[in-house]
Predict the structure.
Amino acid sequence: MTDTRASIDAYLQTHQNDYIQATMRLCAQPSVSATGEGVAACAELLAGLLVQHHFQVQVFPTAGQPVIVAHAPGASKGTLLLYNHYDVQPAEPLELWTTPPFTPTVREGNLYARGAADDKGEIVARLAALDAVRAARHGELPCGVTFIIEGEEESSSPHLDQFVREHRADLAAQAAIWEAGGQDSEGQVVVSLGLRGVLSVELSVRVMDRDAHSGLGHVLPNAAWRLIWALNSLKGPDERLRIPGFYDHVKPPTPRERELLLALPPRDELYRRNLGVRTFVRGGAGADMNLAVFEPTGTINGLTSGYQGPGGKTVIPARASAKLDFRLVPDQDPADILAKLRTHLDAQGFTDVAIEEQGSTPPAKTSADDPFVAMVARAGAEVFGRPSLIEPMLGGSGPMHIFFEVLGPVPIVCAGIQYWSNRAHAPDEHFRLKDFVNGARHIARIVENFASAS
Amino acid sequence: MTDTRASIDAYLQTHQNDYIQATMRLCAQPSVSATGEGVAACAELLAGLLVQHHFQVQVFPTAGQPVIVAHAPGASKGTLLLYNHYDVQPAEPLELWTTPPFTPTVREGNLYARGAADDKGEIVARLAALDAVRAARHGELPCGVTFIIEGEEESSSPHLDQFVREHRADLAAQAAIWEAGGQDSEGQVVVSLGLRGVLSVELSVRVMDRDAHSGLGHVLPNAAWRLIWALNSLKGPDERLRIPGFYDHVKPPTPRERELLLALPPRDELYRRNLGVRTFVRGGAGADMNLAVFEPTGTINGLTSGYQGPGGKTVIPARASAKLDFRLVPDQDPADILAKLRTHLDAQGFTDVAIEEQGSTPPAKTSADDPFVAMVARAGAEVFGRPSLIEPMLGGSGPMHIFFEVLGPVPIVCAGIQYWSNRAHAPDEHFRLKDFVNGARHIARIVENFASAS
């Protein structure tokens, strides 16, 4: 085992540059799912790369962008599933990039490009890890490995659920590695075990056909006020949602999850320094804030009504709208929450406030007690030289739930090349070259350990 | 007297086309105070027109656009003051005009142009009226007439107060005709006696330096929610402002004003038909709604926060803002209301919500018992062949207060060429040619009657 590991590490050190070059070629191909720019071409490019790296590759069309399923058999009967995506966020605002987003550039030990960290570098680091394992084992993987790589993750994966249900047999596995794992601000690997669900909606109200003069404010209805009152009925400064039944299915963290949450470092100083946060929700601070990830939220993403230009304009808005997302925790169900939202608004007299659903996904998490979790954490500690942290649930959301539905209660955890300041979704997105190598070493050890246990 | 009137009417009938041509020349010159486009050139053009019509004209520069003061002496010692403005609203959206806004066009008995109704046609109709009176009296006016014509009315008249205070002597008069009088939807002349005050503000709140990912909604503050709660603290669905002391100085209508308000025709069907209004404030309908103009309002003009594009974006907004105007009634004072708004927000814990004042003007009204009011109403009935209505106060605002301050309690009333559907401030602004003539006849009779009484 020690020899295999040494051989893996040596392979990655020797061939690092080849994989960085491959990542740069992949990042040079735009693949913006929000606009469709280059997405199909990127799927072709990636499929070719997977074939070069000894995978049996299938590119499946969907009603949206293609899904790639790539399989490589192994010595044991176990199979590890790897989830990734080849689409990227839009690169705008372009003027804030130091070098152009689709001209990948290495400087100061980092690779800069749109998609470098999220998620193309991660895909290539996984290929590097698998090649290193093969090289240490005379060309054979110790277990089966299946990639599922979608092209619509940055657009809420609208076609993934159906695809996964229809390709259940192709995706059979006993454990899975999600995208986007890596290190926190202190350099500790964070093994994340779950994602909150989300329900995104737009609330809108129209009270007239067109805006009117505000001198008639004593008689004409005002869409902005209607919206304010409707929103205010949803949540007050105590942050507690007032929708009846909203909390019915919320399960608190288990004692073990609670222990893990309180062991995570407090992040308030980080948020203060990097976002200029003035005060936190409910005045919270320190490790207690970590527990709040097990509470659902209701977040206004945007407000629009009436005149928004410079100076004033004396109008009564005919229409007003708000975008909101509700982050949901086990065992909340987006469809149930949507129904309760409608019932609540009606009961409060806001039958005139329309709800448009803009996307949803249920929450999903892996048990902190699963032996796979401890193994991934140990492997991380070994590679990065510091104890790993286990994060029972992330605040964000993603299409993890469908895999539990199709695969059963297999463990799904995050492990990868990310670090806290990689500017994913923002200008100057990048990864650190040293994390690329260490992230690949981590994946290689997970494959080795998983194969021994399976 | 009957001969004079017949002579006036004949003059206006005969020369109508000359005055329509003069109006078209004035309307062909843009004068958009919001952008400054053509305003100075329009002042020059108008000054020339006033000189041609036997006025002594002074064009005064201000820190903003020029103010024109034009005087013509008369046989009696009385002077009538006429307030107008030569600036216009922006013409956008241009694509909704049937013919270009600055290419005045007559069709189907109407003159279409930006500024036709508001307020250039009105100025020329007044010149026509005065010429008709002169023609019937061998070239002499029976009383003095002074025009004050400003160039910033569509931008809240920011420099008029100071100008009027500094030119008190030039503006001395015993009565005044405001801009924008005319007929309601039933063809009755409405003699309006006052304007509400206004306080325009922008409320804004910033909770972070930049937007953050909504997966952190359980810990990071949200500017949109702060704004919602602050706005909700100002007013609920009962439409009553919750700012302590807001109603302290509100005077209810006098019994006579109440009687006049209840005699005005109900307008709910008009608003339903023309604006598509679903339901009215407080469910009001009928003549009772007319009384509400004596109540102050708090109107949201616009809301802005976070992501407002298509689809969803999972962000927490760092900043949110709302534009509001408060329409004020006698004897509310904008400065007092602004101070009370700040005190209220602070008391409610919204010290983080900033207030930017964007303009204000106090309320102003003429006594319904003034004999000048009855005279203008009688003259209107005579010209239009239907009883006039007297409207004790309009819902809108304007710089009327400063004239009371400088001239003392002289009567100021509205009379002109407007009708309810003239699309002032909107594409296809126009006046009806028949109203131009009748509006001029009305002004001519007011001048005659005022001179006999003074």
In short: Chain A touches chain B through 80 residues (CB under 8 Å). Chain A has two domains: 2-195+364-453, 197-250+295-361. The CA atoms of residues 308 and 370 of chain A lie 52 Å apart.
